[in-house]
Design a protein that fits this description.
By secondary structure, this protein is an alpha+beta fold. Strands 2-3-4-5-53-52-1-49-48 form a 9-stranded antiparallel beta sheet, with helices on both faces. The chain has a 4-stranded antiparallel beta sheet with strand order 6-7-8-9. A 4-stranded antiparallel beta sheet has the order 10-11-12-13, with no helix packed on it.
Length: 1513
């Protein structure tokens, strides 16, 4: 499982966002807007009785091309959970997820609940470029996507989105002049996995270019889906959708042919000049919006039923004639009318909205009753007031009962164009004027300006000693005030002067040497300036233990580079492997610009090294090879220009070495395989006629020759294969070298699992002598060349042991830097070196394939073993580096400004450097490199905490794990770490009551994490959040009122102790208030149906619980942690079992009964992640919870467990090599935790199973050793329960050391003798003589007249004699109230004489000591005779002080003297049954008696270590 926490660094200026598509989600009220750069903004709407406001929350980063369409969908349907209500298909837009498509074919599904990208995938190239996305009305899991082969930068008209062209005529004329029929593809996509389940249409349309598409419902029942397609001339084409695509089409193989097309041409019936600008559909009703009127038609008829003219409305009567025509229209749902009645019934009533290019809109009430069409104006929205030189783009969308106007505002006529989204909220009801009369003008309820929100959020950050940034914020505020002043008809030229001054970011990158801690962010501006923002906090303490100064230098330093005369479009940084001729630089920055030049800078000194001019157009990309590319190519870079040329330049020679010309267009995707020496360049074709024009060029770097040219779909497939090869040989598992400004969103989407295969190969490369010198230089940016030559090399190479890279750096869009912190890598790297007791270092190796630090010799002249002083210094340096590594993570991930006292404590005690001069926000990692980044400001960050339980779980788990780890570094930081842990477990929820509780399913997936700190943090958070986060199907409604009380009473330490000690405690470790009620336990033993009925659960609730337990759908949290559908099901079982065991009063009473069998199956599944957890839960709750549910199946479960051990251990010669290995943790849990608890729950069944294993398994099978080990654990954990089966236990142990089976004896001898010695220690009625040649076993519990002592010979492993312990005759008559057949304690202690010629036994029942005086010769004679032997002497022990007789023990002397007359044991015997008597007898069994020989004929009797008397024999 992966737990990634994202921190985002925003630039000083807000990002540009030109809206190209929009979608609205009603529950909760959410607006999504897609931009021309591929970004998607997430807006939240909050409304009250008096005011409504909408604010931007986050940016969704998953596309690198203009957003073509957005739509609301439901990727999953989970019954029994609150997800079901969000995914209702009621047509109101409350589906719970967003699907987005961009023009380069990438699809993303964004969850509203978790806020992250559930799935990111690229459509196959034969589909084309998506243009319109629509959700199927009755099946919201599926969406219909229309794709065309056109210019990727063109925009499609959408009746519910924005016309991005500056003039409406442009799109109309373009569609009219298109001579050929465009190739179009319409597919149905399952949003669950983004697979194509049906191809509705693929070919050339009979109409013109596709401009409009929607899904309409036809047929008599209105359930037949058809794709409605139209061009700008009004010609329509209908294609039916097969029903098979909606049901059972998840495999994605259904590429079915469409049925016969239905073509309806309405273009000839439109009046002259009637070009369609928008089309809206509702059921069978079609509205064709023209520039001056709107025509309504019935789809099944070719006649119009009515029209609306805009000639006299405000839509056409405007001050500016060029903005007077209508732009779009759509149907609305207002008030109680609900959905509009279908036109097929010849009657309908509804609302229709139309808007023009100036932002004014009119809402009409339209009706068609009795063949009469009527339209009436309901309300009007005035146009937007703006300066004359401001560009505006408008669109409208309905959100609940509001109409939102989305404006894209551009205040600058020069490059670059900066677009600012502005949203206003309008009421759809009429308002009254000052005279009380009704006014047609709508009321504006609220507005949100993206720039204003940005300035407000940015001003929250304290500004000190950074005059540059202060000046920028001031300029922003002043320009904002000038731009948004009411009735400002002529904006000042200085408004937005910060853009003209070049402060708009054109490119950015994060410098992180070999994917360690990043230490700088580089920004390139449109003015040509370059700014390097260094994190001094990253340099950290050096290897000599010096700590950084917190008072002298600020945490961030800035450095500027000037020289470019055009916008800086690309950046890259590189650490030199060799040396340049005549130069001494070692760390360079390469920049490409619109001025056609490439500049190389020395990052250490800030000087310009050289200027290269190999391109005649703008330079768009700078690409370096992977870290392990050999010289001389390792110090070369590629430059890609808009002149369609790719050049290779060397940093050693500072000149161009290769030119790769001849590309037909600009190569938008260029990748360099440094290991194999090839370059791949993909050139997209924008001809718009077919998919065969995309071309891939493959070049040989060494020769400069063109090796291969591929066209069409083969070019994309080859590029994907090419990129997979690069990722396999890459240190980071990525295609790009980390230090580049190229966005990872531009790269091909690769499937996971490539990096794990390459790690062993990279380890060999790391340890090879050839790579040693380059590693010395590249690993640490603070290492100088002289230090490397002298062998003084920091300990940074120890981080090469990480399987994954702890901090990933990317810039999805210019100016936006995202840092992704991987929790496993943070903990994994930090737990490599633990301090040993002797002051040295103990290496903990978590994997065998990873290179070890002590195997990596970085100093050729040093001794192989090294000196102790050097070792200590090196590992002290490692410890210091790792500690600073965690501090850096905390500095960026902590939620600052919410608890001032905690912030001060972290700065003073933990020495955190707070990044005050950076604009920091939070985020979420999504699928395939996608990101969800919150905007600056505490309100936006907290919105993610309030809406996403997945985010809460991952962020809290990360912070709590790091806090616990920091305690191990320094005890002085323990108070700060404890306060930090308390903040993220309880204090945060107390301060912000409406934040989501951490998701329990996600937390349990980390219960078996490799890191102890992560395991402890996950379990602590589970108990802290359990009372607030119980899933709805499991929650007991009656317990809702008591949740807060339980939450306040439960303590972290107590709950944590119950879980963390589950491996070594007995089954009685539960607190009394958390144990299940006896009534529920007894009811569970009955049949399931009867018990469920008595427990008050209905059959419907039972099915809901079972559906939730068996849910296999991929859920949001699974995609957050990179799990599978199997993880979803197993985590549900773990959560239900844990809640049923620890919190039975908060869940439904039948939960334990329903989850018991799935829990057992999960244990037997041998799942690496969950079986150990399931076994621990089953073991801990066996006695209190699960025994009543599975009592009859415990023996079978024991047998199955032994079978699993037999199969997976691999120690048997017969089974070795035939079964795949199972993780050792699972086997250890089965052997050490589960089996002992199962054995204690059903001791007779356990003994029967292990006896059968003697004959049914191989002699050298590991199950025999496991059986002996389990017996020892049972003796230690529950000796009283085993006391009545001592004869069976001894028989089994002696079987394992039978001389007749030499193989088994050799395998089990040591363990068997250990088990016998443990029996002697635990049971005083079992004794060995001093030479371990004789073994005596007495009956601890038995009948008075049938008590015996068995004597065994250890050499022959046979029973040699039986001693009679039932005498003397008449004993039952001496004990009042005791019958001869009564079961009682018989033998309480045994001891062999020191000379081996006698045996003494003590019986608590009757207080007697028996003595058998036997000689050695007599022992030999007895070996052939098993007749019971009477004792030689009986000594009666007088009752001692404090002796209290009960029903299980009595004294003969006390009965004779009449001291027990007050106890009527006969009446008690009548009242109690045999089982109850036996249970009471076992419970009161005293195993503390001991007999010790003090002389040849004298024994000492003791109890609990206290002497009771000495008795001569």
């Amino acid at each position: 499982m992966k737990c990634r926490s994202v921190a985002c660094i925003w630039p000083d200026t807000p990002p540009s966002h030109k809206v190209t598509a929009s979608a609205a989600l009603n529950h909760p009220p959410t607006l999504y807007t897609g931009g021309s750069d591929g970004s998607i903004l997430w807006w939240n709407l909050s409304s009250s009785d008096t005011n409504s406001e909408i604010k931007p929350v986050a940016m969704l980063c998953g596309h690198a091309a203009p957003i073509a369409g957005l739509s609301i969908c439901c990727p999953m349907v989970v019954t029994g959970d609150d997800t079901k209500t969000e995914c209702s298909s009621n047509g109101d837009g409350s589906y719970g997820a967003l699907i987005s498509a961009c023009t380069d074919g990438v699809l993303c599904v964004w969850s509203r609940g978790s806020g992250h990208c559930r799935r990111r995938r690229k459509l196959p190239p034969w589909v084309g470029s998506p243009c319109i996305v629509r959700t199927l009305p009755t099946s919201p899991r599926y969406v219909c996507i229309a794709c065309c082969f056109i210019d990727a930068h063109a925009h499609f008209s959408d009746p519910r989105s924005i016309d991005s062209f500056e003039g409406g005529e442009a799109s109309v004329d373009k569609g009219r002049k298109h001579g050929k029929h465009s190739k179009t593809t319409v597919v149905i996509v399952d949003t669950h996995g983004l697979t194509i389940v049906q191809t509705v249409f693929h070919g050339n349309l009979s109409i013109g270019r596709l401009d409009f598409m929607d899904i309409v419902l036809l047929g008599e029942d209105g359930e037949k889906h058809s794709v409605f397609m139209a061009d700008s001339s009004g010609r329509v084409e209908l294609v039916p959708i097969l029903k098979e695509s909606n049901a059972g089409g998840d495999d994605g193989s259904g590429s079915s042919k469409s049925s016969q097309l239905e073509v309806v041409n309405w273009g000839n019936k439109l009046s002259e000049g009637g070009q369609v600008v928008s089309i809206a559909t509702r059921g069978d009703l079609i509205a064709l919006v023209l520039k001056t009127r709107c025509i309504f038609r019935i789809l099944s008829s070719d006649a119009s039923i009515g029209e609306i003219s805009f000639a006299e409305d405000i839509l056409c009567v405007e001050e500016h004639s060029n903005q007077s025509h209508v732009l779009g229209g759509m149907f609305l749902e207002i008030g109680d009318t609900g959905e509009m009645q279908n036109a097929q019934y010849d009657n309908f009533l509804g609302h229709f909205a139309v808007w023009n290019r100036s932002g004014s809109a009119i809402v009409y009430i339209v009706s068609y009753l009795n063949n009469v069409f009527k339209s009436e104006t309901l309300c009007e929205i005035p146009s937007s007031s703006c300066p004359a030189d401001v560009r505006l783009l408008f669109s409208f969308i309905q959100l609940k009962s509001y109409l939102l106007r989305i404006e894209s505002v551009c205040y600058d006529d020069e490059e670059p164009l900066r677009w600012n989204p502005h949203v206003t909220i309008w009421s759809l009801c009429q308002k009254n004027n000052i005279h009380g009369k009704s006014s047609r003008q709508c009321k504006m309820l609220g507005e949100s300006d993206f720039l204003a929100e940005w300035i407000t959020s940015s001003s929250l950050h304290e500004i000190n000693s950074q005059g540059g940034r202060k000046m920028r914020i001031t300029s922003l505020q002043s320009s904002f005030r000038k731009a948004r002043t009411e009735n400002n008809k002529h904006a000042d030229d200085e408004s937005f002067s910060f853009v003209r001054n070049g402060l708009a970011v054109s490119s950015s990158m994060v410098i992180s040497e070999n994917h360690l801690v990043p230490y700088a962010v580089v920004y390139g501006f449109f003015s040509g300036e370059i700014e390097v923002v260094r994190f001094d906090m990253l340099l950290g303490p050096d290897c000599h233990g010096e700590s950084p100064s917190h008072d002298v230098e600020p945490p961030v330093s800035r450095q500027c580079f000037s020289g470019h005369t055009g916008a800086v479009l690309c950046l890259a940084a590189h650490r030199m492997m060799g040396a340049a001729k005549g130069w001494s630089f070692s760390h360079v920055l390469v920049s490409g610009s619109m001025d056609c030049t490439i500049r190389i800078w020395d990052l250490n000194t800030g000087n310009l090294i050289t200027v290269m001019r190999q391109h005649v157009a703008s330079v768009r990309q700078i690409i370096f090879p992977s870290a392990w590319t050999e010289r001389p190519w390792g110090d070369c870079f590629l430059s890609v220009g808009e002149d369609s040329c790719v050049a290779l330049a060397s940093l050693e020679t500072l000149r161009v070495e290769r030119m790769f010309p001849g590309h037909p267009s600009y190569p938008e995707k260029v990748v360099w395989d440094g290991a194999r020496g090839y370059i791949a360049c993909l050139c997209w074709s924008h001809s718009g006629l077919s998919d065969t024009s995309d071309t891939l060029y493959i070049w040989d770097v060494k020769t400069g020759a063109r090796e291969r040219v591929l066209c069409g779909t083969a070019s994309h497939s080859m590029l994907d294969h090419f990129c997979k090869g690069i990722s396999v040989n890459s240190l980071s598992g990525s295609i790009l070298n980390g230090n580049t400004s190229v966005s990872s969103l531009l790269l091909p989407i690769l499937e996971d699992g490539n990096f794990s295969q390459s790690h062993s190969k990279l380890s060999e490369k790391v340890c090879s002598p050839r790579m040693t010198s380059s590693m010395k230089i590249t690993m640490d940016p603070t290492t100088s060349q002289g230090q490397v030559k002298k062998g003084i090399f920091p300990s940074t190479p120890s981080f090469l042991q990480m399987n994954k890279h702890a901090i990933g750096c990317t810039c999805p869009f210019p100016g936006i830097a995202a840092l992704s912190f991987d929790l496993a890598s943070l903990m994994f790297s930090c737990q490599k070196h633990e301090p040993a007791a002797n002051g040295g270092v103990k290496l903990k190796e978590r994997g065998t394939s990873n290179p070890r630090t002590h195997d990596m010799n970085f100093d050729d002249g040093s001794d192989k073993n090294g000196t102790s002083t050097d070792t200590v210094e090196e590992h002290e340096c490692i410890r210091s580096q790792e500690e600073y590594f965690l501090r850096f993570s905390l500095s960026f991930l902590h939620l600052w400004d919410l608890d001032i006292e905690l912030d001060k404590l972290l700065v003073t005690e933990m020495k955190l450097n707070r990044p005050e001069n950076l604009i920091i926000a939070s985020g979420l990692q999504g699928d395939k490199g996608s990101l969800t980044l919150t905007f600056p400001g505490l309100s936006s960050i907290l919105e993610l905490w309030k809406s996403s339980s997945e985010f809460c779980a991952m962020r809290s788990l990360t912070m709590l794990s790091i806090a616990q780890r920091m305690i191990s570094f320094s005890h002085c930081s323990s108070p700060a770490s404890s306060a930090l842990a308390a903040f993220y477990t309880r204090s945060l929820a107390d301060k912000i009551p409406d934040i989501k509780p951490p998701l329990l399913q996600l937390l349990v997936s980390f219960w078996q994490d490799e890191s102890e700190h992560v395991r402890m943090a996950a379990r602590t958070l589970f108990h802290c959040a359990a009372s607030r986060a119980i899933p709805i199907p499991l929650c007991d409604k009656k317990a809702n009122a008591n949740r807060e009380l339980v939450r306040s009473l439960s303590e972290i330490g107590e709950n944590e102790g119950q879980v963390s000690k589950v491996g070594g405690t007995s089954t009685n470790g539960l607190s009394s208030d958390m144990s299940p009620e006896p009534q529920a336990t007894s009811l569970a033993a009955e049949s399931p149906d009867k018990s469920l009925g008595k427990q008050g659960i209905t059959e419907a609730e039972r099915f809901k619980i079972l559906d939730w337990l068996e849910s296999y759908e991929m859920q949001d949290w699974i995609s957050c942690v990179g799990g599978t559908s199997q993880d979803a099901m197993t985590s549900h079982i773990i959560v239900a079992a844990a809640l049923a065991m620890w919190y039975p009063s908060l869940v439904k009473p039948s939960l334990a009964t329903l989850v018991a069998h799935p829990l057992v199956k999960l244990v037997m599944a041998m799942n690496e992640t969950y079986s150990s957890t399931a076994a621990e839960l089953l073991s801990e709750g066996m006695e209190s919870t699960w025994k009543a549910c599975i009592n009859s199946e415990i023996s079978r479960l024991i047998g199955d467990t032994f079978f699993q051990i037999e199969c997976v251990s691999g120690q048997s010669a017969n089974t070795a090599g035939h079964h795949p290995p199972v993780p050792s943790s699972v086997r250890e849990t089965l052997v050490g935790i589960l089996l002992p608890n199962l054995a204690m729950a059903d001791i007779p069944g356990f003994l029967n199973v292990i006896e059968s294993q003697i004959w049914s398994t191989a002699s050298d099978s590991p199950v025999h050793l496991v059986s002996l080990t389990t017996l020892i654990r049972v003796m230690r954990g529950s000796p009283r329960q085993l006391s009545q089966y001592l004869d069976k236990v001894v028989s089994f142990i002696l079987h394992t050391i039978d001389p007749g089976n030499s193989i088994m004896r050799k395998t089990c001898l040591q363990s068997s003798m250990t088990a016998l010695k443990e029996m002697v220690r635990a049971f005083p009625m079992v004794a060995l003589n001093d030479t371990s040649t004789r073994l005596a076993v007495g009956d601890a519990i038995g009948e008075i007249n049938n008590a015996t002592i068995s004597v065994y010979d250890m050499q022959s492993v046979t029973k040699i004699k039986v001693l009679d312990a039932s005498g003397p005759p008449g004993l039952p008559n001496l004990l009042s109230g005791t019958s001869e057949m009564a079961v009682t304690t018989v033998i309480s202690a045994l001891s062999f004489a020191p000379d081996g010629e006698g045996l003494v036994a003590f019986s608590e029942h009757g207080l007697m000591i028996r003595w058998w005086s036997l000689g050695s010769v007599w022992w030999e004679k007895l070996s052939r005779n098993l007749a019971p032997v009477q004792c030689t002497k009986v000594i009666f022990v007088p009752p001692w002080e404090g002796f209290s007789p009960n029903s299980s023990r009595s004294s003969i002397i006390a009965n004779i003297l009449g001291h027990d007359s007050q106890v009527n044991m006969q009446e008690k015997a009548r009242d109690s049954t045999y089982a109850d008597s036996l249970k009471m007898l076992i419970h009161n069994l005293d195993l503390s008696y001991r007999l010790q020989w003090v002389s040849e004929r004298k024994v000492l009797l003791s109890r609990h270590g206290q002497e009771l008397g000495t008795f001569p024999l």
